[in-house]
Amino acid sequence: MTEETSSATEDAADEQAAATAASGGPEDARRVAAAMRTITSWLVAGEHRDGWLVDMADELERLAALVDGPLVASRYEGPLAAGDPGRGAAAHPFVGAASPLSPPIVLTLDGEEAVGRGRFGPPYEGPPGAVHGGYVAGVFDVVLGMAARAHIRAAVTGTLTIHYHRPTPLNEDLVFRARVERTEGKHLFMKGQLYAFDDFLTAEAEGMFVATRRPGFS
């Protein structure tokens, strides 16, 4: 096995560890994030009975008042990153189970193909009944990046183009897939697809990622 092949294999293992960690994080942090997602979905699309909003606002303001102290400059330096093989992936805005911003999307590696699975609820709606295209693009960036880093130590997005074929439905199981099509020097050219209902293609992505010496991007 060459040094380059060994490095790529180790990097793929690191990326798989990061994907696993993204669905983890401290149990209490996952519970908080899940509860906040539920509240956000209810606020956006739930039935607002008389008095509920006032009671909810009062309680949330009470909890918010308990939060004090300075914030770290980066989630990579935050408490959820401590001892995390995913380097802070648990707080990632798209795949982190401990982030209330995240749907979350679960990442895996299938050989050299990166796969992201999840669903988007009401807070992510753009057109009626469909996921906002910005969130689709954001997840594509993550999944293509994971496929790129399965080949090389670290890579950052150079370009990302999304082709939207059909609306991506809300509240349905979705599958993002990505792979490296070719490499040219330090440039990796990527392609990806997004499917709903197993085989219903809603969007495709093309990206160019640039190899970098700086590891740890997520």
Shape verdict: globular
Number of strands: 6
Q: Would you identify the CATH H-level superfamily?
A: Hotdog Thioesterase
Strand content: 15-25%
Helix vs. strand class = alpha+beta
Q: Determine the mean pLDDT.
A: 86
CATH class bucket: Alpha Beta
CATH topology: Thiol Ester Dehydrase, Chain A
Rg over C-alpha atoms, rounded to the nearest angstrom: 19 Å
Task: Tell me about this structure.
This protein has 218 residues and is an alpha+beta fold. The chain has one domain: Roll (Thiol Ester Dehydrase, Chain A). The protein contains 4 helices and 6 strands. Strands 1-2-4-5-6-3 form a 6-stranded antiparallel β-sheet. Strand 5 and strand 6 form a beta hairpin. The radius of gyration is 19 Å and the shape is globular. The N terminus is likely disordered.
Characterize this entry briefly.
This protein is of the alpha+beta class and 218 residues long. Helices cover 33% and strands 25% of the residues. It has a six-stranded antiparallel sheet with strand order 1-2-4-5-6-3.
SSE layout and pairing:
Layout: H1 3-22, H2 27-45, H3 52-66, E1 106-110, E2 113-118, H4 133-149, E3 155-164, E4 174-184, E5 187-196, E6 200-211
Antiparallel strand pairs: 1-2, 2-4, 3-6, 4-5, 5-6
